[in-house]
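Per-record layout

source: Streptomyces demainii
name: MFS family permease
length: 408
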Amino acid sequence: MTDSRPSRRLRQGRASLAISFFVQGAVFALLVTRIPALQDRYGIPDGLLPLFLAAVPVLAGAGSVGTEHLVKRTRPGLVLRLVQPVVSLALLAAGSGTAVWQLALALAVFGLAVGALDASMNMLGVSLQRAYGRSIMLGFHAAYSLGGITGASLAWAGAHWDLPLPMLYAPLVAVLVPAALIAGRWYVDQRGAQRADRADRAEAPQGGAVVSMRPLLPLCLVMAFAYIGDSTVSNWSAKYLEDVLHGSEQLATVPYNVYMVTTLLGRSFGDLGVRRFGAVAVVRAGALLAGGGFAVVAAAPGAWAGMGGFTLLGLGLCVLVPQTFAAAGRLFPGASDAAVARLNIFNYVGFLVGSPLVGALGGVWSYRAAMLVPMALVLVTIRYARSFGPVPAGYGDGHERPRTVDVG
């Protein structure tokens, strides 16, 4: 009987990549949760702050595009090992400068590096999932959520004790950078995964296939819609609970924490759901839960009902992004790195669109009505759920996946 267990190298690669997802989740949370402190440190006026914040996802998109071309010449694991310390050091630089140009430079480096980091991390995750032969992608994103909760908690402690940003960031970066470098020794990319997994089916090598945007477009839309929903929660949940649902200032801090915890729970058990029911069913269920969550938030008579809606949102939205990356890997097995890099751009598109969209609609209409827009977009995901299923037999030459996949 053939041993179907993954090799030791694959298990090491999985653990090391989970550490990198955790580190990135913590670093990103340490940045976004201390934006008011950064604004105060540099004396940035309210009118100028959105330009600084918008520059990060724009540059991250450029970093993701650059990574698509970079991995044609080198391994994604090497890219990740190089850029992850850069992201952490850029965080420290952003919190340690004294002039606005220093913050601008640090955020520019952060944005470019985080785009390369997000793309390369998910490239490795897709490759490992293929080698494992079962769903493990949600587990990596669960590690990211856990890192986000940890980073946000540390940021809260820093704010509570009124720690200067350099004093908060420096010891954490001193721990996170070595952790990421050590974990990087065991990264396994697609070629390494195929060598490590002796039972792995033959796949077309990276670089020999073409990625067409036409079959990838449904997944790009789902990615953007998911991040519009996510950015709505992260940017507007506190204001909504306090101003619309008349919760207390202390209670207004709870919805995002609840959202993060339920995101962690959903991702921790999501892979089991995919293995049992399939990715299509899990994506449909996630979209329905998220849509229902937005509906509850929009109709909530009070703060506690609103928090119930945010709980549903976390459980629903959490499965969409990891499964979108996994579906891109299945659709373009011979060019999954390029597909992931292009798909990752729509992460930042959703982030850029979501917050101003809800803010503008809330200002001219009402915030309750504004919540129905991300609800509708998330529910559109159900239409594209079939894109998350296995690629039909016969796709390509009828025997194995083609070296060139271009349906455009």
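summary: Confidence is low (pLDDT under 50) at residues 197-207, 393-408. Residues 198 and 209 are 23 Å apart (CA to CA).
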